[in-house]
């Protein structure tokens, strides 16, 4: 089967990219809408957070199944069915009359969304000739880079100016167009299928350990982690389930997840690097707007605008990386990415409470260059040397590892931020005892401005809190910078992949 050409190639690329964008957007667009959703449905914000958790758990479970489902039903049929069901469940989410029904529809939405991202990648690779496979990966990467940043801004605007159901309604026209275009172009390019037995035990164990792990990560901070018997129980279930899953899948004749991929050095090193790197990146994406809104007086929209410029250099440089990744060792690009991520975090580690909007934007803009040299080379390296039929499974596992690492990063960062802030608060208060000259001077200044004694003490405590959380955020940014520097050593454990854009050559040759 020949690669696509001309207008057909352009329309196919746009359709696949739209579907990917819609999918990735939905992982973050609802985050800022939780207070409105909870208020409208008559529940607390903590209960409303299950709208996020339910999608993440179902999505994480279905992602590793992509390879098995592809072999069973074919790439094109599975992808278009996933898009159609995603549109349907999005519509049902918008119509949900209660939190329980919304969570049910979000579970279904997350489950059907799983195969969309890895299959959009493999279909895109098969659409291009081997010489342009790097450009295909670049087109795919741009959508995954921009959507997480656009999501909170768009979700906030829709919630503030229309109503929260429209964060789901907007998927309907986008998904319908993407689904129709994809089926029209790709229905004659279906991949071979084979009737495989269902690995029911493997599937059950996957649901158990991934579900327990995701709920533990999402609820850990609220339940004070291992001080809670619920979290301890979830951790034990996840650990035992994971061990049993590994043993079963490595000995099963027709495993639901192809774990033998991790025998390949380039695959496991790339997966480790992209997981830890994405976890650190996503943690900062969560931390920065939290700090700005809670302690710097920024609105949700303004905090989103601080993150938005990250797409500028990412969009500009990603196509260049895609065109040259076949001629440049991907490890060099990833090294540049990690060095730039480290620089950005070192810059943010110097922030203080007087940081201007312009000062906050500078590292955000620079970070776009790091993102441009992050996804494409790492995906290229992870898929290098794989045959076309293994690309969907490899891509699905890689995306699963990335998304799970994002959940880990969010939980670890928000927990450390609170705990380090408590430590710094106690250290700062030691210098502000009731009889200290500094405390007395500050309280006198506040009272001279018309505040009462109680109000002055409350405001002083608020100022201490602001400084404590700022220093805590600086600690985390500094630690993230050191992590990115350490990851450079990990990526050089991989073998050179010069001249091969991951599984692109395999995917392209396999389509002929």
CATH class annotation of the largest domain = Mainly Alpha
Rg, rounded, reads: 24 Å
Name the overall outline: globular
Percent strand:
under 5%
Level-2 CATH architecture of the largest domain = Up-down Bundle
Largest sheet: none
Oligomer: single chain
Describe the structure.
The protein has helices spanning 6-26, 34-41, 45-48, 50-62, 66-73, 75-95, 99-113, 116-127, 133-161, 166-169, 171-186, 200-219, 229-251, 265-295, 300-307, 310-324, 330-348, 357-372, 375-383, 391-429, 437-448, 453-491, 504-511. It is mostly helical and 512 residues long. It folds into four domains: 1-197, MFS general substrate transporter like domains (Growth Hormone, Chain: A), CATH 1.20.1250.20; 199-255; 260-418 and 473-503, Up-down Bundle (Growth Hormone, Chain: A), CATH 1.20.1250; 421-471, no CATH class. The longest helix has 39 residues, at 391-429. The radius of gyration is 24 Å and the shape is globular. The model is unreliable at 498-512 (pLDDT under 50).
Summarize the topology.
Blueprint: H1 6-26, H2 34-41, H3 45-48, H4 50-62, H5 66-73, H6 75-95, H7 99-113, H8 116-127, H9 133-161, H10 166-169, H11 171-186, H12 200-219, H13 229-251, H14 265-295, H15 300-307, H16 310-324, H17 330-348, H18 357-372, H19 375-383, H20 391-429, H21 437-448, H22 453-491, H23 504-511
